């Protein structure tokens, strides 16, 4: 268990650095993390299934400005790991991942507060041309972010995996079934959050076409995605150019005498 806890902690630490050190590689997404958790714990299929469910919940989660979103890295890894170790499946993962992510969010806020000190120190070192101090002020926040997910993940798996598994196994099935039903509603909440940002009158017909295709034509997600790609191709390369040309033809000539239109 020590090796697994250490490996999962490292994965969590690398995950939180995604977008901060390595660029946005989507390594911090639950779907990707679920794969690695499954590999480490010996159940890749279950890890991917749980990661996909958690991805639906947190698909619309993004940190904007000074807002600190729930820690989906810690929540996703621990929720997936405890579900696999207990053998109780997706229901347990959904029940554990969300509160863990919200709880770990407080640690992320603390790290950000501490890092503001190093940001100001970096400004001072830059004015003094102190390159060593500047490098120190840049790498310490990275280390703190790494530890903010590595430490809780490592300790939770090493010290709490057996206790959590025993607790989950002691919970009556009726309660777990209820949590499973509630958990199945969470992906709908995730989609609602995403649609709240993206939904518009112009895009609404495409959404309902996809929904009806899945509900009544029983097409799978891959078929709907390919069909949507074809529709987008037709609109972009055939319909929009015609509309643009029509607008250019109808646009009145506002040039006055002596002016030259270089466009």
From TrEMBL:
Transmembrane listed as a keyword: yes
Keywords: Cell membrane, Membrane, Phosphotransferase system, Sugar transport, Transmembrane, Transmembrane helix, Transport
Name of this chain's protein: PTS mannose transporter subunit IICD
A Pfam family per the record: EII-Sor
Principal place of residence: membrane
GO cellular component terms attached to this protein's record: plasma membrane
Intracellular or extracellular location(s): Cell membrane
Organism: Tetragenococcus osmophilus
Transmembrane regions listed in the UniProt entry: 27-44, 56-86, 92-114, 134-159, 179-199, 206-239
Keyword Metal-binding: no
GO terms (BP aspect): phosphoenolpyruvate-dependent sugar phosphotransferase system
Membrane topology designation: Multi-pass membrane protein
Superkingdom classification of source: Bacteria
């Amino acid at each position: 268990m020590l090796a697994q806890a250490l490996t999962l902690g490292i994965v969590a630490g690398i995950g939180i650095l995604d977008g901060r050190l390595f660029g946005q590689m989507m390594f911090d997404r639950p779907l990707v993390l679920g794969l690695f958790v499954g590999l480490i714990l010996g159940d890749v299929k279950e890890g991917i299934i749980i990661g996909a469910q958690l991805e639906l919940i947190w698909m619309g989660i993004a940190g904007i400005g000074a807002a600190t979103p729930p820690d989906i890295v810690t929540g996703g890894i621990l929720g997936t790991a405890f579900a696999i170790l207990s053998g109780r499946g997706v229901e347990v993962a959904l029940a554990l991942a969300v509160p863990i992510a919200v709880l770990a969010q407080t640690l992320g806020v603390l790290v950000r507060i501490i890092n503001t000190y190093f940001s100001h120190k970096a400004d001072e070192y830059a004015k003094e041309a102190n390159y060593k101090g500047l490098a120190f002020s840049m790498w310490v926040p990275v280390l703190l972010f790494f530890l903010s997910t590595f430490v809780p993940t490592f300790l939770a798996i090493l010290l709490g995996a057996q206790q959590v598994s025993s607790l989950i196994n002691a919970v009556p099935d009726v309660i777990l079934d209820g949590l499973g039903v509630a958990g199945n509603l969470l992906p709908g909440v995730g989609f609602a959050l995403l649609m709240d940002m993206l939904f518009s009158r112009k895009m609404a017909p495409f959404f309902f076409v996809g929904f009806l295709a899945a509900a009544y034509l029983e097409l799978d997600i891959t078929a709907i995605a390919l069909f949507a790609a074809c529709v987008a191709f037709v609109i972009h390369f055939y319909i929009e150019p015609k509309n643009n040309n029509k607008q250019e033809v109808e646009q009145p000539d506002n040039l006055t005498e002596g002016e030259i239109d270089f466009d």
